[in-house]
């Protein structure tokens, strides 16, 4: 298959004609209608006829690349758009591109392939990757040509519904691929997880504090030590045989001597746990705000 004159004119309109060698924005020496190669040197000059001949010569390997890489049949407009694309990005780049993969997928995802052409609108300029307006316009023109039917649209044949442009359309705004990609679900998951963690932490802290108070009130313990198998946290007995929760051994008698231990306050909560609970509370609030923002953004951009 060969590119048509219409395709050549589209390509020429974006390549432009330069009869004297110059360096493009990427620093590559170029002449004619975007011709590059080892035969282009600084100071080189050619005529318009020579530029036309170089273009026709350069088109042949691009046409062959399309025939080689495209496994689906193409109409003239699709072929022309792809030749213009490959003339700009190179055959190897097209071979590994998403556009080619989508084009060859199943029966041919032409809409997806056309959209993927638009992604090739950036170039490295002075070591920085940036969008180039000329490339954006070129990709838009190639996409439009690629999607333009080369034959009159099918109106009556129900089997040709894909080619029917008269059918009454309805708005169907884009949606995310799956539930996991929904930012609302993501925010709600984070908020729920933080809430569960805060609740668990608070419950454990209350249980521990209640157990301590119960031990104190029953006289079994005055600290937060875990009870022994006998139900207390004693580490010795006094002279009368009463249990004590802490003490030291008298070197003369060999008996445990009771030591005074401060009674903990009823509202003494561990500082680290309190800080962690506060951080989780902040996370819940931020997650809730994120859910609200996500819903507003979905309504604004997706109308849903």
Structure description:
There is one protein chain. The protein has 304 residues and is mainly alpha-helical. It has three domains: 159 residues, Lysozyme; 72 residues; 39 residues, no CATH class. The protein contains nine helices and nine strands. The protein has a three-stranded antiparallel sheet. The chain has a two-stranded antiparallel ribbon with strand order 4-5. A two-stranded antiparallel ribbon has the order 6-7. Strand 4 and strand 5 form a beta hairpin. The longest helix is centred in the middle third of the chain and has 36 residues. About 4% of the residues have low confidence.
Give keywords.
49% helix, Lysozyme, 9 helices, mainly alpha, elongated, 3 domains, 304 residues, two-stranded antiparallel sheet, 3-stranded antiparallel sheet
């Amino acid at each position: 298959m060969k590119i048509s004159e219409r395709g050549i004119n589209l390509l020429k309109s974006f390549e432009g004609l330069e009869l004297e060698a110059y360096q493009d924005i990427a620093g590559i020496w170029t002449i004619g209608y975007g011709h590059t190669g080892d035969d282009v040197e600084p100071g080189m000059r050619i005529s318009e006829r020579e530029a036309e001949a170089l273009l026709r010569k350069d088109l042949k390997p691009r046409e062959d690349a399309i025939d080689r890489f495209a496994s689906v049949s193409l109409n003239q407009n699709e072929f022309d758009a792809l030749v213009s694309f490959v003339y700009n990005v190179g055959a190897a780049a097209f071979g590994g591109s998403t556009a080619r993969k989508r084009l060859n997928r199943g029966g041919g995802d032409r809409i997806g392939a056309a959209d993927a052409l638009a992604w090739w609108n950036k170039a490295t300029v002075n070591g920085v990757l940036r969008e180039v307006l000329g490339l954006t316009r070129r990709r838009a023109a190639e996409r439009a040509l690629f999607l333009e039917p080369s034959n009159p649209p099918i109106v009556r044949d129900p089997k040709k519904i894909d080619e029917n442009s008269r059918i009454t359309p309805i708005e169907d705004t884009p949606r995310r691929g799956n539930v996991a990609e929904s930012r609302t679900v993501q925010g709600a998951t984070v908020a729920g997880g933080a809430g569960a963690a805060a609740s668990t932490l608070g419950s454990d802290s209350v249980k521990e504090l209640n157990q301590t108070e119960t031990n104190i009130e029953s006289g079994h313990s005055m600290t937060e030590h875990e009870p022994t198998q006998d139900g207390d946290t004693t580490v010795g007995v006094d002279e009368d045989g009463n249990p004590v929760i802490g003490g030291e051994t008298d070197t003369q008698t060999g008996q445990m001597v009771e030591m005074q231990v401060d009674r903990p306050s009823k509202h003494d909560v561990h500082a680290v746990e309190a800080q962690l609970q506060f951080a989780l509370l902040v996370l819940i609030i931020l997650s809730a705000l994120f859910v609200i923002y996500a819903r507003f953004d979905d309504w604004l951009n997706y109308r849903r």
